[in-house]
Structures are given as C-alpha cells and as structure tokens.
Design goal:
The chain is mainly alpha-helical. The chain contains four helices and no strands.
C-alpha cells in the first residue's frame, strides 16, 4: 500500500520520513511472507537470492544517467548480503 502511495506522489518532496519508515516495514513483511511460504531451507535461500538479484537490478537501473533523480545508490550492502547468503547455504549443506 505504501509503495503505491509513494509511487503516485508527484514530487519527491511529498515523501516524509514516516512514509519511508512504514514502507520499509511493509517491504520487510512482504519479503518475510515470501520466504515463510517456501518449504525447504534451500527454497527459502533461493527466494532470498532472487529478491537480492532483483534489488541489484533495480539499483543498476536507478543509477543509469537517464533515470537518475537523486544521488546514485550503492549496492555494496546488497552484494554483502548475497555473499553471506551463499556462505550460509554452504554451511547448511555440509
């Protein structure tokens, strides 16, 4: 719901910190629901990995000069999550 409301705003100045906080919590809930829905740990890890790949693609798209509205987003934290997820999967499958 917050995603839709934020996307429909005419200017970025109309977004409050409270909007972004509640949108963040809403996004975490959606991700959690997607993961819980999967049966095995491997499926849960794969769903997380798919989500992180999507985030990386979105960051890459945002950072293209023709799409850039604000400063570029960094993707270091997302890449770190992917590395941690890969190592976790390796530990789980030992």
């Amino acid at each position: 719901e917050k995603d839709i409301a934020i996307r429909n705003l005419s200017t970025i100045e109309d977004i409050t910190l409270n909007d972004t906080y509640s949108q963040h919590i809403e996004a975490i809930k959606l991700l959690t629901d997607m993961i819980i829905d999967k049966q095995s740990y491997e499926e849960k890890i794969e769903k997380c990995n798919e989500y992180l790949e999507n985030v990386l693609q979105n960051i890459e798209s945002h950072n293209k000069p023709e799409n850039l509205v604000l400063n570029k987003f960094t993707d270091v934290h997302v890449k770190n999550y992917k590395t941690a997820l890969k190592k976790f999967k390796e530990m789980l499958l030992l």
